[in-house]
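Response to reviewer comment R2.3. The reviewers asked that we include at least one raw input/output pair. We reproduce the pair for Starch-binding associating with outer membrane here without editing.
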Amino acid sequence: MKKVISLIILISFAACYSCNKEVLNKQPLNIISDADVFKDPALINAYLTQVYYDMPVLGNDCNASGSFDGDGSWHAFDINDVSDESFPQFRDWNPSNAFTYKYGNLNINGGLLDWWGYNTIREINQFLAKLPASPLPADQVKSKLAEARFLRAFCYFSMVKRYGGIPLITAVQDISEPQSALFPARDTEQKVYDFIISEIDACASDLPEVAAGDNLGRPSKYAALALKSRAALYAGSIAQFGTVQLNGVVGIPASAAKTYYQASYDASQAIIKSGKYALYNLDANKSTNFRNIFLVKNNSEVIFAKRHDNVNEATGGNGWGVDFFNCPRPQAWGRGLYEQAYLELAESFEHTDGTPGALDRTAVESKIMSTEELWANRDPRFYATFYTQNTSWKGNKLDFHAGIRRPDGSIITSGAYNGIAATGDQDYQGTGIGVLKYLDESHDNMAGANSGWATSAQDWLIFRYAEILLNNAEAAFELGNTTDALGSINQIRSRAGIALLGSVTRDQIHHERKVELAFEGQRYWDVRRWRTAVNDLSVRWSGIRYILDGATGKYQIQIIKNVDGTSNIPQFRAENYYLPLTVGRTSNNKNLVENPGY
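Raw output as returned:
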């Protein structure tokens, strides 16, 4: 079947991804057949650019493109909000799927993070089939084929981590093929991971060693190795901690764990030894330094990023919604603070001397204290990851206080006391902790009343060097190389400004990932692959309230239990380690067996 491409869409998104600056000069045309596409270098580039647009999973695992579906909207945060990191606010609206599915409502009808990317796989397979006969020079054909194979591997990884084994389709299907080819059965989970790794091995050396200039936003050799580092680590932990079911359609034999850990380790080592990347470490202030990893474009840590500009998608741009939705107030909708962090995650950040960060909640609630006392001597990453009462923002201090304590001990929650409003201007009904990571204080969060909100220019970091060190540490540890594991973890902690470890355990490696990679779309997948999600995600989490003490200007602290709400009970069940294929897909293809438990 012929591939038909919309030129209008292609031209628009070629610019958005900064992948191609050529102008298509074939006028007037609305659609072009694939036969014509692969005769024209500009159209070939536009075709490949369209593939990027058709992969919303590049934007923090979003499952659909468009102004209200992709990372230009609240859906960029769904992956965080179904984990133990945060929950979505806007209590009178709550558009996020995460709000429904994290409370035990995921069933055979699916909906959570669902992405069945076979339309994109078909686009890529067609590109791989047609490109060799194009008029492009041989070196360009070689590099573009490698790029397409990387994107196909990324698509399959995005699906296998969701569903387990899925059909591997590596050529364009034709209506004349047998029914078994047109309606394929699921391959084993192990076979899919093996395919991903083999594709990376085949294409990595044909990709540019580094991406620069107009190729920023496209994969390099080391982006491919980063995908291998991550995918093989997932496969290794699934083999180690998971269970084989449906004759291997889900699960990987335990005997394969070491092989995958070795593949992950080797890929991480290749990136580390290349010397092409380094932990970002230019700012003397450790908190400022950590914030700038996500604000300074193309810094030493960035291996592969989805690029954004400051223009809303509805007007032809490629802006991101993070600044608008997660910012403190003021905000154009009078909201902000969409994604609110749980107190337990904040407590996961240690003190700088390495002692645990968990609050003595009884002691904290029994006295009046300042926010400086409450959050003293924390891992500098804490102050770069969260904002809360008295956090500096745009020259002011944020105010979450929820009531004023008078000298007689009574608390007022309306009106004012001594000229001070009873409540602050931030959302004190949520967890009391906002997400600072990726927020740019110079961004105008008032320019969004007319759907112009997706205008953050911050790039989304798909792979960064710190993750490679964490992958290296985990794989090395599982292979018995604790010395290398410790060294990688201590590089992360040294850059952060926190006490180094003298030895390392599996739990400490997992903990370091939780802290370093918070709100980067990793936590949900990590607890799933470690098979700890049933315990880690089925928890009644907490928030914090600040009651202003009118006499001292300090605060009476209240811990808010069950902050999600009394009727919203977080629940992750064993079957949720895999998402359902859904009734619609298994009905359309009788050869697809549904995942266990649905």
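The two ends are 35 Å apart (CA to CA). The longest strand covers residues 543-549. Further pairs are available on request from the corresponding author.
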